[in-house]
Amino acid sequence: MIEKKIRIKNSAGLHTRPAATIVKMAAKYKCDFFISRNGMNINGKSIIGVMTLAAEEGSELVLTFEGDDEEVAAKEIVDFFERGFDEL
Amino acid sequence: MIEIDSKSISRKEFITVDFFYKLAKTVGKLELLSKNADLDKKISDHNLHRPGLALAGFVDLFSYKRVQVFGNTEIWYLTQLPEDKQKKSLETIFKFDIPCIILSNNIKPLPALLQLADEYRVPLFNSPHSTTKLIYLMSDFLDDQFSQRITLHGSFTDVYGVGICFVGKSGIGKSEVALDLIERGHRLVADDVIILTKKGEGILIGSGTEITKHCMEIRGLGIIDVERIFGIRAIRYQKRLEILVELEIWDASENYTRTGLDESTVTISEVELPYIKLPILPGKNITVISEVIALNYLLKHYGYDAAKIFQNKLSEQIKGKNTDTQRSTNYFEHDFE
Fold first, then answer.
1. What is the spatial distance between Cα B46 and Cα B49, in angstroms, rounded to a whole number?
2. How far apart are CA B241 and CA B244, in angstroms?
3. All domains of chain A, ordered by start, with CATH?
4. How does pLDDT run across A19-49, given as a tens digit for each residue?
């Protein structure tokens, strides 16, 4: 299991476009992917789940990957968060 | 078997008096009496407290963090004190950082109480309810606020009044099953993100989130609003969770129940629930099976367990050494019913 703590960097936060990109990225992999924030732990492969987080700039999230291809999945998704969803 | 991650469980640390007043105002018939109140004070305990002993001077174990309830006893005790002692007695509790005070039975607040409440900026409410009823109502509200909340990924539906939650891997078709059930007249509670709240002992109430309401994602379509499409009959806001159904791709090595005698259960937040593992196969109509799950649950609830009755019949026949397979009707007279 891989657990990564990340912070939202872009000013628009985790809005619809990045949320859709994240679930599409996650759906390619077999591993389970969860995002948690303040006691909410949602499935990162569900668009409704990711949007429910309503994560604003500066908010802290914990990403969890578990499964055979967790490393590749974590690399791609964490990288997308680090790049501020290409909106920086 | 599904597992609940500790990250999915949360509990509120506190609520502000302002929040408490807004939400509990109607049920508790609360009225704010003090003019200079700090409504940002925090309530961090779900219990209530009657500060009789503290007013009498014993403050060693004073639960000052709780909502304080003044009933007839407290007021009567204060009224019979001379004015200076009355103020001193009240000051003993105001020196602590109490969140708020509620007076029951519509008791008129003593002038000293009003004055001190304003001075220490402690919100003072009154309520027409009797003390017992007020404590019951406010405890119920606070218990709910401070109870454990669990987020669960799945689709939660009300099928014939039975709360069935479908869980399973992303993309297995939970939302599609829910949609099919809605089309057949059942109701959606929440999709994708379900928040379970423990209510009392042994009950989990599920609901959706404020932001998603009754929206649902269907692969290939995107996000749809179930309430708008199917109307009010297709939704409900809360439902007790009664059965957990896990959908999975048929696995030949998995041991699926054949008789239904070996009931599995799953425990979520100390609540034990019936748990059914349902393999998905071509030609298998999960929606109809879900309806049967609900109806069978109702039958069992009313005392009829088909698997057990079948088992008993079989034992009787074996005991009676009647090994011939009997036709259900011994003699067909004509082609009549």
1. 10
2. 8
3. 7-86 (3.30.1340.10)
4. 999 999 999 999 999 999 888 899 999 999 9
Residue type for position B281: L
- The dihedral over CA atoms of A51, A54, A55, A56, expressed in degrees to the nearest 10, equals 130
- pLDDT at residue B34 tops 70: yes
**Binary contact (B170, A64; C-beta < 8 A):** no
Which residues in B lie closer than 8 A to residue A42 (C-beta atoms)?
A: 151, 153, 192-193
Mutate: best of A2, A4, A48, A50, partner B, most B CBs <10 A: A48
Q: Which residue ranges form the domains of chain B, and what is each CATH number?
A: 10-145 (3.40.1390.20), 147-309 (3.40.50.300)
* Closest to B161 (Cα-Cα) out of B307, B304, B302: B302
| Amino acid type, B142 | L
Q: What is the ipTM of this complex?
A: 0.87
Residue of B133, B230, B112 whose CA lies nearest to B178: B230
pLDDT in tens, A42-83: 999 999 999 999 899 999 999 999 999 999 999 999 999 999
Q: Which residues contact B312 (CB under 8 A, 6 or more apart)?
A: none
Bridge partner list, B103:
B70, B126
With CB atoms and an 8 Å threshold, state whether B10 touches A43.
Answer: no
For residue A76, the tally of other CB atoms under 10 A from its CB is 14
Sheet with B31-32, strands from edge to edge, namely: B31-32, B124-126, B101-103, B67-70, B48-49
**Which residue is catalytic, options B12, B25, B121, B153?**
B153
Q: Are residues B133 and B105 in contact, defined by beta-carbon separation less than 8 angstroms?
A: no
* pTM for this entry: 0.82
